[in-house]
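Treating backbone geometry as a discrete language has practical consequences that deserve illustration. Part of our work consisted of pairing the sequence of a single chain with a tokenised description of its backbone. What the numbers capture is local backbone geometry rather than side-chain detail. For completeness, the protein is quoted in full, as a sequence line and a line of structure tokens:
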Amino acid sequence: MNSTPEPTWRKSSYSAGDGGDCLEVATGNTAIPVRDSKNPEGPTLRFQAEAWSVFVDGIRRGGVSGRGGR
């Protein structure tokens, strides 16, 4: 019987300590799981590794803004 190991979740070092708008990311086999840190038992989103890399690169370059768009 094969069991899938539980992901090891990590929170961004940029996350505030007050429990505000934070997300957690874990390393996946074929997809990157992401969840709301305030609701760890809630749903997760899964991104293909390439799509996640593009997203993270966009954030690093300042191309992603908060609510309301650019």
Q: What stands out?
A: The helical segments are 49-60.
